[in-house]
Specification:
It is built from 5 helices and 4 strands. By secondary structure, it is α+β, with helices and mostly antiparallel strands. The protein has a 4-stranded antiparallel sheet with strand order 1-2-3-4. The longest helix is centred in the N-terminal third of the chain and has 41 residues. The two termini are about 50 Å apart.
Length: about 200
């Protein structure tokens, strides 16, 4: 009964983590597509906002930081595989922090994938946020970066959601909590007591 209750509790926890990841991912993907549509409609020249922050419409055929430029089409299946892996990681997540982090990365990946598949610029991703000495990016890129930081911070803080080779989440080690052998009861002690000489 206890094992069945533990399994049910774990399954419920995993469903909750997956739901959190899905909700965050959906919000990020929608925000990315809405802001991209606004940027494509309204940004026609570079705009300075505040300090190093500005807006400038550009299109990127590669990944973040303009890596792998020109490899737009093979990035589509790679991104799809990444999204599937993130869903699996979210299913195994045991903390809200990890679920949110996976959701941020997943939503960003879906947002950029949508740009490549249904965007009007032949598979390029629309980037429009500029910073001094930093590549132009979009909302999806920002969420991917923040999500990676959140997941990494969770791993470093406790390691409760770090995958292991066995496929189970790692739990922190607590020295001194090993199960101690049960002490013999009074009856056993009396049974093994040597008779007085």
């Amino acid at each position: 009964m206890q094992e069945r209750g533990t399994d049910a509790s774990l399954s419920g926890s995993r469903r909750k983590s997956l739901a959190v990841t899905g909700a965050v991912a959906a919000a990020v993907a929608v925000a990315d597509q809405v802001t991209t549509a606004w940027a494509e409609a309204d940004i026609h020249r570079p705009v300075h906002l505040l300090g190093p922050l500005g807006l400038d419409m550009q299109y990127n055929s590669g990944t973040a930081f303009s890596l792998f430029t020109g490899a737009r089409w093979w990035l589509v299946p790679v991104t799809a595989l990444l999204a599937a892996a993130l869903v699996w990681l979210a299913w195994r997540a045991r903390s809200l922090m990890a679920a949110v982090g996976y959701g941020l990365v997943l939503g960003g990946a879906v947002g950029n994938l949508a740009d490549r598949l249904v965007g009007a610029h032949r598979g390029d991703v629309a980037d429009f946020v500029t910073l001094s000495h930093w590549p132009t990016f979009n909302v999806a890129d920002a969420c991917i970066t923040v999500g990676i930081v959140v997941v990494a911070a969770g791993w470093l803080a406790g390691g409760a959601d770090r995958p292991t080779a066995a496929g189970h989440a790692k739990t922190p080690d607590h020295p001194g909590t090993a199960e101690r052998p049960a002490r013999p009861g009074m009856a056993e002690q009396a049974e093994h007591r040597e008779p007085a000489s």
